Amino acid sequence: MEGEKRKRMGMALGAIGLLILTLNLADFYAGWNALADETALAGIALSLAGAYFALIRKKEEITGG
Prior knowledge:
Radius of gyration: 15 Å
Largest sheet: none
Structural class: mainly alpha
Order of helices and strands: HH
Number of domains: 1
Strand content: under 5%
């Protein structure tokens, strides 16, 4: 069941990261530039963390351990 928790956490982290990146992109194209570069870095980090947890889950399914 631990793997299922990791999968859910990875999906949540990835979704939050992509939402942050989407908001940052909309802010950039609107010309407001109110969001800092740090929000883009946080969005990238969260998206990569979510993908990492999903990859761990997939690897466990393939190797059986």
